[in-house]
Amino acid sequence: MTNSVNKAETDVVPEPETTPAEADDSRTPAKRGPVRMALGVVKTARPRQWAKNVLVFVAPFTAAQITNGGVLLDALVAFAAFCLVASSVYLINDAIDVEADRAHPTKRNRPIAAGIVPVPLAYAASIVFFGVGLGLSFLASPQLAIVLGVYEAVQLGYCFGLKHQPVVDLAIVGSGFLMRSIAGGVAASIALSQWFLLVTAFGSLFMVAGKRYAEIMLFERTGAKIRSSLKKYSASYLRFVWATSAAIVIMSYSLWAFELRERADGSVWPVISMVPFVIAVLRYAVDVDGGTAGEPEEVVLKDRVLQILGLLWVATLAVTFYL
What we know:
GO molecular function: glycosyltransferase activity; transferase activity, transferring alkyl or aryl (other than methyl) groups
Pfam family, one: UbiA
Protein name: Decaprenyl-phosphate phosphoribosyltransferase
Keywords: Glycosyltransferase, Membrane, Transferase, Transmembrane, Transmembrane helix
Subcellular location: Membrane
CATH topology of the largest domain: Tetracycline Repressor, domain 2
C-alpha cells in the first residue's frame, strides 16, 4: 500500500515554473471600449509633441509679418494641419513597431502595444488624421499641402525601414524640423532666405545628433537598451556631427544677423540678438555633452536658463522687426 502511494506521488509531474515574461504575457488583455479606444488614439497621436509645430510661426515672425491678420491665420492653419499630419505618422509608427514595443520595458504601455487600440484602428485613424490635415492645408495654400505630402512620404519611409540606415535616419528626423519651418513660410507666401534655411536645417541636425549622442552616452554608462540604428554609430562620430552642425548654425545666424542689420537701417538689435542665440546653442550643447539631451522640447521645458535665453532672443528680434 505504501509503495503504491509513493509511486503515485513520484508520478505527479511538477508544474513548470512561470517566468516573469510568461506571467506578463498571460495577464488579462486590456479592456476595450469606445471611450477607452478613443483616448488611446489621442494618446498615440502624442499631443505633447505638437509643441514642435510652433516652428511654423518662425518664418512669419522673422519676416515681420506675424502681426498681419491674414498671415497669422495662415500660420495657425499650418500649425493645426501639421499637428494632424504628424500625428498620423506617430500612429503608423506605433502600429508597425507593436511587437517590438511589447517587448520593451516602457513602450509596452503604449496604447497599441498594450492592446487598447487595435492595429487596424490605428491605421484607419492615421488615414483620417492625414486626410483632415491635408484638406485643412488647402485653406492656407496648395504649396502647404505639397510640403505636408512630402513630409508624410519621407516620414513613412523612415517608419518602414529607413530608420535603420545610418546617417539617413539623422537626415530624415532633422528634415521634420526643417519642413515645419518651411511650412510656415509657404502657408503665408513668405520668401525664405538662404540664411533662414541654413540655420533651421543645421539647427535641426544639431538637435537630432545631440539626442542620438545622449542615447549613446546613456548606453555606455548604464547598458540601457538602444535603437538598432544607434549600434552603427560611435559616440565620437555623433559628437563630430553635432559639433559641426553647431558651428555652421552659429556662423549662418551671425551672417543672417548682419544682413538683417542692413535691412533694418543699421539697427544694432539684430547684432545683439547673436548674444542670446550663441549662448543658447552653447547651453544646449552642455546638455548634449553631458549625455542628458532628450527630446528637444523636453530639454527646453526643463532648462530655465535656456528658456530665458530664448525669450531674450525673441525680444531682440521683436525690437528689430516691430519697433
